[in-house]
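Researcher: We're teaching a course module on how sequence relates to structure. For the next exercise, students receive a sequence and then see the predicted structure as tokens, so they can try to spot secondary structure elements on their own. Here is the exercise chain.
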Amino acid sequence: MALTWIIIIISLILTLSAQIYISSAYAKYKKIGNQKQITGFETAKQILAKNGLENIYVVETRGNLTDHYDPRRNTIRLSTEIFHGTSIAACAVAAHEVGHAIQYKEGYTPIKIRNAIIPLVNFSSQAGYFAIVISFIFGLTKLLWIGIALEIIILLFQLLTLPVEFNASSRALKQLENENLLEKNEISKASSMLKAAAMTYVASVLTAILEILRLILIARDND
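Model: And here is the predicted structure for the students to work with:
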């Protein structure tokens, strides 16, 4: 029992640390303007054009760090501060989202595999939660093992997300440098910003692993 509480505490620390890390990095680099005063919108449009992706829309969306690429609608959505901002953070985040669009264009293998298992992951997310809750209520250990198996499928999806995110950041930095959108001394700052963002995905994977370990310990104690 003590071990399960230790796992819970470690998971909370990992999640909180990752959120603090990305928030502090974003707060830092959104205050540093890029020398060319190019906005996130302009960054995205220029990189898209250079990669033959003029058919992809770049639009403004609400929220903070809600930026994402929607492949179903061929749309990159940038939060207000990123869309209009001329900071290092704005350029880095916008370029990262374009990196995802380039991945789709080139048929990047990890993203193809990840997309292929999305229906299974959606099912596992709902069914796994249901199985675990019911197993705790009625003491059904076999059902808990089923829930654990479904959680492992979700973990697989998260593991596939890691190379997708790191690769998008790598592509972003390469595009920012090749297209001369940022000066050389600004590229390292953009890299720091994107590494901080990537750590949230690493933390999610570690937290998922710890949660599965906690459930396994509970299941073994109940056998």
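Model: If you want an answer key for the exercise: Residues 40 and 83 are 5 Å apart (CA to CA). The chain has a mean pLDDT of 96.
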